[in-house]
Amino acid sequence: MSATQAGTRRRRRISLYVALLIAAWMAVMAARLFLQFDTALRVDGRITTVDDYIADRCGTRLGPDAASCLATAHDKARMQLRREQARTVLIIVAPGVLYLLYLAPAALVGVRRRHAARRKNRDRR
Questions:
Q1: At what angle do helices 3-34 and 64-124 cross, to 10 degrees?
Q2: How far is CA 39 from CA 42, 46, 98, 123, in A?
Q3: CB-based burial label for 92 (10 Å; 0-12, 13-18, 19+)
Q4: For 39, 63, 111, 115, which has the most beta carbons within 10 A of its beta carbon?
């Protein structure tokens, strides 16, 4: 067995461990964050539900003021909920995406090294 083959096996083993670690991260974070996904908002560093957010914003208003406050609070809560959901998805998926972004250039470097080694071996003959 050559040193190149041993290095390739080591890289494959490390790659497998990294992929397993990323899969475990995604499973744990998805399980942890999925329960809050539909209703949780982060307001001033604390997590609250959409209904509690709207009640805090418009709970003391009466009459026509209350209707306009509810409409704007619903719109703002919907926008903040979408933003929070995007952050949650990013937290869950980011390690996998970063690893895939790393794999493409690493594979290209590996192909170039193999081609260079083949050329070097042909020149020796």
A1: 170
A2: 10, 13, 28, 66
A3: buried
A4: 39
